[in-house]
Write a structure and sequence with these properties.
It is a single chain. Helix content is 42%, strand content 18%. Strand 4 and strand 5 form a beta hairpin. Bound molecules: S-adenosylmethionine.
């Protein structure tokens, strides 16, 4: 691929910031070049300039989505940051159960915002299904959203190589996953329907307005905002907090912090916030 000129890099990074809130500062130029090179090979377009013109044109709308798939970073794993799942089980869930018992509702709603390939929402759902007394009595659902259609396809398929399940306790693996017979030489597992049916996977750009009717008891937005600048983080947290029930919890990644941002949530412990 031709080298990306500074001017063109600015154009791409302005587009990525404007559309997805992702801050591609100067140090990310080689990352953008590498990812662009892949898209140029895949489309047969010969220069970054022609590629930019194409994705901004009417015929390039599908490729526009693929471009954002390519620039987002999707690293994730099951039970990442395990303290969050312990907190969910031992603190958040008992509070939700108690609150719902008082108000007479069976509804529990959680949102994994920036769910990547699905490991996070599946971990949330496994935690809740194994912690609730009589889970079948609850109307429990997890919404899992991401900007990238590519990761969502993997998430919906729910097929993972054995190595990816290393953090999943054996009892949970046996209950919620089944080995795939036709998985080839690598051992592969598929999420069982009992778990899959709890989760709705949808494409949602967090920069857009949210199409939700109801509110959530728990929102995980972990390792997503690191790519956004302070201004974008602040408005996103305020927007998300509006969709959290009073008493609901908001989780960010442990390397993220809401310090210095104006928002209505109360700090509970590292990377955990509550709406009072
Ligand atoms: C590093 S992954 C984090 C996955 C998971 N939450 C975790 O902590 O393991 C970040 C995800 O955020 C998504 N993302 C980035 N910008 C986004 C945006 N504007 N709207 C929705 N999702 C976005 C990326 O596509 C990616 O899948």
């Amino acid at each position: 691929m031709q080298r990306l000129s500074d001017g063109l890099f600015q154009k791409f990074s302005a587009l990525v910031y404007q559309e997805a809130g992702i801050n591609l500062h100067d140090g990310k130029k080689s990352l953008l070049e590498a990812r662009l090179a892949k898209r140029l090979r895949a489309t047969g377009i010969d220069s970054p300039r022609a590629y930019l013109d194409f994705i901004l044109s009417e015929e390039g709308r599908e490729e526009y989505v693929r471009f954002f798939d390519a620039v987002s970073t999707n690293l994730t794993f099951f039970f990442r940051e395990p303290k969050h799942f312990e907190f969910l089980e031992n603190v958040a869930l008992p509070e939700i159960v108690e609150r719902n018992r008082k108000s007479g509702t069976a509804r529990i709603r959680m949102w994994s915002a920036g769910c990547s390939t699905g490991e996070e929402p599946y971990s949330m759902a496994m935690t809740v299904l194994t912690s609730l007394d009589q889970p079948f009595r609850w109307d429990f659902r997890v919404l899992a959203t991401d900007i990238s259609t590519r990761v969502l396809q993997t998430a919906m398929l729910g097929v993972y190589e054995q190595s990816k399940l290393a953090n999943v306790p054996v009892a949970l693996r046996q209950r919620f996953f089944e080995p795939l017979r036709d998985g080839g030489s690598t051992k592969t597992y598929r999420v069982r329907d009992e778990l899959k049916k709890i989760i709705a996977f949808r494409r949602l750009n967090l920069m857009d307005s949210f199409p939700f009717k109801g509110k959530f008891d728990v929102i995980f937005c972990r390792n997503v905002m690191i790519y956004f600048d302070k201004k974008t983080q602040e408005s996103l947290i305020q927007k998300m907090a509006a969709y959290l029930h009073h008493g609901g919890y908001f989780f960010v990644g442990h390397s993220e912090s809401l310090t210095g941002l104006h928002h209505p949530l109360k700090y509970v412990k590292p990377a955990v916030y509550k709406k009072l």
